[in-house]
Amino acid sequence: MKLMAIISTLLAAASSALPTNSSSPEGSGTGPYRAVYTVGPAFANHTIFAPKFLSEINSTLPVIVWANGGCSTDITETAKFNLEIASWGFYVISSGVPGGLNATFPYTSPSTSVADMKASIDFAVANAGKKGYEKMDGSRIAAAGYSCGGIQAYAMVTDERVKILGIFNSGHLTDRGAQELMERHRIPTFWFLGGEKDIAGANGMRDYANMPAGIPAWAGNQNVGHGGTYKQPNGGVFGKAAQMYFRWLLKGDSVAATYFTGGGATADGWKVESKSMEKLVPV
User: Fold this and answer.
1) How many domains does one find in the chain?
2) Which domain holds residue 242?
3) Which entry of 84, 184, 187, 282 is 20 to 30 Å from 248 by CA?
4) Is position 100 within any domain?
């Protein structure tokens, strides 16, 4: 009985500690909408980033499903980055919650999984257009992740509901696994890597080099190492490049397109390679 009482107390404390609507103290992105995140019973063990005042927006919003570095259940490290993306008119559904395992006792696993990312896709498709999610567009979905989360995003390449991939400071762990991945690869993929100091950089560039012929691909490197710039205000240069990518291919934003086609990324310090970009068509 005492054990059950302790568990009940811990669960109540964890629940009360979780904000239902909050935003980064550094701001909520550089986009036209103030972004916030929501956690709670609507979608267990996940965090939803989105514009706060959805009534101000006259269009539906694409969805990015996201997984964290280290396959962590704690979304804190990339919260500013995801708020930046959301501020440009997106839903970002991240596996995990603020504080991770300790904040959500008992979380089902100490790490997020491919199943968690697939659950995010299922949630978006099932709830798009319904009460509370009237502005969510389940037909325009990207899968993306940082480091270990990028490996989870790779696993979504066979899910026909996913239109593009964003791989951040990540690459497949083995040559054989990378070869098997590329044999079934079918959608445009952009890599955002940390240069020679990035422990996943070489693997990411190998995956880029092995993309099947004719599938659009872009790879950019910043000399910042594996940690990227996610913790900087608005996610730093990685946050800027990410929102440009998603704005271009999920919204058809011609201004964002020029970041990649007109030298904007290079001006921001990205060392760039690309192929088959002429075949890119926004969703």
Assistant:
1) 1
2) 23-279
3) 184
4) yes
